[in-house]
Design goal:
Layout lengths: L17 H32 L9 H4 L4 H29 L6 H7 L7
Helix pairs in contact: 1-3
Length: 115
């Protein structure tokens, strides 16, 4: 399938610009942090509005200061935030030119230094 002298690019015929990989890595780090902060806020608002809301849950499941409930809410919110952020980043990728702009990105890439 590969012709001689041509590098295989993997399953996709285009290469992703490194900035998009950096943005994806940043999202992997920042999204769970944002989700846990949102979970803490949501749980505190839920308890302020109805303090008996967690009485039906076993105290062992709630953990110290409802930590396990906050972690479970953070996991759910992480999935939602990843969905939102990936949709937004794919939209911005398309606005920035998408895979059509790869030739320009390839030309602006620095050549490796040769002795």
């Amino acid at each position: 399938m590969n012709t001689p002298g041509r590098k295989s690019r993997g399953p996709f015929p285009w290469r992703v610009h490194p900035i998009w990989r950096g943005i994806g890595c940043l999202l992997l780090i920042v999204t769970p942090i944002i989700a846990f902060g949102l979970a803490e806020t949501l749980v505190s608002y839920a308890l302020a509005g109805n303090p008996d809301i967690l009485n039906s849950i076993d105290p062992d499941v709630r953990g110290p200061e409802n930590l396990y409930v906050k972690i479970a809410a953070a996991v759910v919110l992480s999935f939602v935030l990843f969905l939102v952020f990936s949709t937004l980043s794919s939209f911005f990728y398309s606005l920035a030119g998408g895979h059509k702009d790869e030739r320009m990105a390839e030309l602006t890439k620095k050549k490796p230094f040769k002795y």
